[in-house]
Amino acid sequence: MRGTLTIAGLGPGSDALVTPEVSAALAAATDILGYAPYVARVPPRSGLKLHPSDNREELQRANEALRLAAEGGQVVIVSSGDPGVFAMASAVFEALEQAPQWQELPIRVLPGVTAMLAAAARAGAPLGHDFCAINLSDNLKPWAVIEKRLRLAAEADFAIAMYNPRSVSRPEGFGRALAVLNEAGCGERLVIFARAISAADEKIETVRLNEATPEMADMRTLVIVGNSQTRRVGRWVYAPRQAR
Which residue of 54, 114, 155, 242 could cross-link 82, Cys pair, CB 3.0 to 4.6 Å? Predict the structure, then answer.
């Protein structure tokens, strides 16, 4: 049997948002690797080996997946959301760049519904005009880079989707991000806090940025800062299609 490696996105949480293509890959897999909570979403079955690991072991996980595929396994690495958005696809190709012996392996990247898109759909259409996504984790980049990107995104009047806003290990980062955006003149912009989207305990809250506090977000929260034209219509939030 020729081995394959599939990098798959499980979507934001609900099984209903897992694509049929990803479901088929999971059903055919001999080995599934990923961050432990994501692997736990895959039901065990005969002939399937589950390989959960810690969330800071991306390169080790990628190398292990390549090795298993090279040995003939039908290997799937799972990520939440989309695997190409702050997730495992980049880690696999980073590992592959250092491993020429595996570069002829059949590899697929299967898209998934991102937290950003799922949150935007629940809120209305806050990403209906130009937008960007910024990961607030400083594990792989210095805070100065994050701050620069926030300021430039504010200056360009993008809506901003912010991933990984606040964790136990770095509780101060999101407060700093809010301060940067307030200093950049975004205080009156609408901000959507979308927590645990598509899960049973999901919660959506919208406030002005100058009313937002760091405690309103955690690692299960996707934060969307609207552009200067973003507005409410009833319970919905949307960005007009025309820029001023």
Answer: 114
Phi, psi of 138 (to 5 degrees): -100, 25
- What is the rounded CA–CA span in Å between residue 192 and residue 204? 7
* Residue type, position 161, single letter: A
Strand partners, 27: none
Per-residue pLDDT tens digits for 141-196: 999 999 999 999 999 999 999 999 987 777 788 999 999 999 999 999 999 999 99
Give pTM, 2 decimals: 0.93
DSSP state of 209: G
3-state secondary structure (DSSP) of residue 73: coil
What is the C-alpha to C-alpha distance for residues 159 and 49, in angstroms, rounded to an integer? 41
In 10 A of CB 208, how many CB atoms?
Answer: 13
Backbone φ and ψ for 224, nearest 5 degrees, come out as: -115, 120
CB 29 within 8 A of CB 75: yes
Orientation angle between helical segments 173-183 and 143-155, nearest 10 degrees? 30
SS3 138: coil
**Which domains, from first to last, does the chain contain?**
4-113 (3.40.1010.10), 116-238 (3.30.950.10)
Q: What are phi and psi of 152, to 5 degrees?
A: -70, -40
Task: Read off the pLDDT of residues 90-130 as tens digits, 9 standing for 90 and up.
Answer: 999 999 999 999 999 999 999 999 999 999 999 999 999 99
Residue 116: its H or E element: helix 115-123
Longest dimension (CA), the chain: 59
